[in-house]
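Ticket reopened. Same input as before:
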Amino acid sequence: EVQLVQSGAEVKKPGESVKISCEGSGYTFTKYWIAWVRQMPGKGLEWMGIIYPGDFDTRYSPSFQGQVTISVDKSISTAYLQWSSLKASDTAIYFCARVLVRHGLDVWGQGTTVTVSS
Amino acid sequence: DIQMTQSPSSVSASVGDRVTITCRASQGISGWLAWYQLKPGKAPKLLIYAASNLQGGVPSRFSGSGSGTDFTLTISSLQPEDFATYYCLQADTFPYTFGQGTILEIK
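Engineering reply: fixed in the latest deploy. New output:
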């Protein structure tokens, strides 16, 4: 079974850093892009960026360029999303998903809630 | 980036009703559009890919159509479990972009 399993919820203070993870299984991890999607409280889905584990090619949506870092450790089939200095506005649910090019996102992680509050 | 305009933003309907949601792209995306269902506390669920292809396991009351810039998602006979939020996603050009979402509420 193809699965993406994300790390648990995080509660942080403004200015702190955090790195959340997304582990893939049941498929060849290096052959599919992984996307990160944000859902802020009461808001819609936003495309943040993608990474191709095979060659580390990474592309950010303009709104998120410079705000987050997407990375991958293909030896453990895991993608990451990290912040170096969180803001309260980063409070959201973050989903990872497998990308089928031209077909969209077919398999999703369960979501990771990041709460940033002083 | 390609902008996706989804309408309506919300709709109230009853069990058994037929509902149609539309999505318009700011430029042509051929048939590269997907539709998702999102319920609170759950991951989005892929319903339709490439505009009109039903994802495995999705009930046949869901259907999609369109090409170029205009697309529709139709639910032919609403069931109680269909009340959720629906999003379109253009999958033509990175960055892929979502519509703003349509909340489907019980009347």
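Chain A touches chain B through 26 residues (CB under 8 Å). Chain A has a mean pLDDT of 97. Please confirm and we'll close it.
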